[in-house]
Structure prediction request, 141 residues.
Amino acid sequence: MTDWLTREQRSRNMASIRSKGNRTTEARFVTLLRDSRIAGWRRHMNLPGKPDFIFKKKCLAIFIDGCFWHGCPLCYRLPEDNRPYWRKKVLSNRLRDRRNSRRLRAKGWKVLRFWEHNLKTEKGRRRVLFKLERTISLLNR
Prediction:
């Protein structure tokens, strides 16, 4: 299906849409942290890539990547419309994610990334929690 807007109109339209944050996914992660009594975290600090959560004393940055926007290998389905645009968009998001992770690591931060789908099931939440607790315990040494 062809786009009924010109390239310039579509660009202006997409640029005007602002994210409100991934509230439901981040809320699930907050619940996981609170239920597990994991303290010391903060949200949305001004660091490269704007991590969703950080543990400042441990220099740990956590990103919760949305399956659609970051191209999850399990969940992502390329939209039928405007496929070249979406291929380029998701690829540029993934490249930006890698670049920001490298920048944080260069500054001495440990980076964890979790997929959105892992927070939707109990099994996935257990895996996330295990990885998070293991990382925190290693950083305490």
User: Anything to note?
Assistant: The helical segments are 7-16, 23-35, 83-106, 122-139. Strands lie at 42-43, 53-55, 60-65, 110-115. The chain has one domain: 20-139.
